[in-house]
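Predict both folds.
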Amino acid sequence: MSETPLVPNSNKFVKNWSLDAVLNSIPKLVTVTSPSSPLAFLHIIERLKTTPREGWLRFDIQHGESIADHMYRMSIITMLCPPEENIDKDRCVKLALIHDMAEALVGDITPPDKVPKEEKYKRELESMKYICDELLKPISEIIAKEFMGLWEEYEKGETKEAVFVKDVDRFELICQTIEYEKKYHAQKDLKEFFHVRWSIKNGFVLKWVEDVLREREAFWKSMEVESVVRPTP
């Protein structure tokens, strides 16, 4: 049992993470349902609604988007994929909704946390196995296998659907950055988040990025700030 509750985004959570410690920190509910009930799973992923995206907290953006907020808009964006791209949009929606699901137990780890990529993947894999094996498999082994397969597909990033959803992940971040720039004007220097633009692979997503960057420039010009520099590699 953890001596003090672990909460997402705390230093102790990031540095001394373990699945058991996180599970022990979650208030236990009296179980009155059958093992095949989805309630235990739903209570875990509720944390995605209440865990803020860590990057914004570093800039003191309070009441910013949650992990679930981010994944919801990603899902909507995937539905905007041009039909001529021949990408399975239904599968993309599922990938968007599941790709960060492990963060319900791991939290939103960002580069400044200095958690090695391998360690981050290990934590997320352990969390997804727990979600799928312990929470989803009693409901349906087929459902558990589908969720795990979708998460692994996104992590590998080899299918055109996974590549597209990774691009959407980055594009959504760019949109949110610009929206916070508008909200806080010059109070927050958020340009570091634009680096993701250089990892986008799909040409049509890059066109979306160009649209939002032009919108950004027009906004700053309207604020009589014409020295805003376009993101560079």
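Second protein follows, with its predicted structure tokens after the sequence.
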Amino acid sequence: MNDTITAKREESETVIEFDHVNWKYADTEIPALREIDFKVNRGEFIGIIGVNDSGKTSLCRLCNGLIPHSFTGELSGNVRIEGEDVRNTQTARLAKRSGLVFPDPEAQLSQLTVFDELAFGPANLGLPKEEIIETVNKVLHLMDLDSMKSRSPYTLSGGEQQRVAIASVLAMNPALLVLDEPTSNLDPDGTKKIFQTMKDLNQNEGITVLLVEHEIELLAEYATRIIVLNQGKKLLDGTPREVFSKIDIFHQIGIHVPQMTQVSESAREDYGLWPNQQDPLTLSEMIDLLNL
């Protein structure tokens, strides 16, 4: 009996699973994804990195059923979201489980006010009006958007629009929040705020986060797990410290490791400093290392 209970608990803790997944768009010869195989467990904050055309966006599209329902191509292997196969599940049903935020927030905005934007998804799910209002007000407060609820989304700054886009997805109460380069059009301050928001949602609200980003330093600081894609394949998968220690691999594929890690590695190779210390990932870790 204990074994059965454990098995059920483990199954329920898997939010999304990629089981030897291959995907090739109909108008291309080279697969966008090849033998992708990993699970995302509830409560994880996973950063996805890779050079352009490494398969990151295709991976995001699989997370909410855009592939294969909205794109033509060849899919093999299985993608299961909370146990449901994306092939056999309508995208509207998948939207309750996995929400996707695009790089350009305006591509996701369509309503006259911020409040209406957040209410749009739950209304399409057929939820009662009272429940929609309660949910929207909760998410407005959670995302610090209360003062903007009557404004047009198109009058907001880029960072504010991105928060509205994230909030509109959260209003659907998904088990998984997937973000495809959400800070690509933001300044450093806006970028840091988005990362901090993701950390708060992950740690305080229990939201599982899958974040595609180029901001290596911030991923090293905020993510609990890093997956590196290269030419459509999963190249590395582990904690930030485990992954970013593979400096030679990063050099080969053309991605830099966190700046503090590079500094530490250079100091060790050029001057013999800190021979027995692990490389720092963040500025605070570098300061601790200097104080040894």
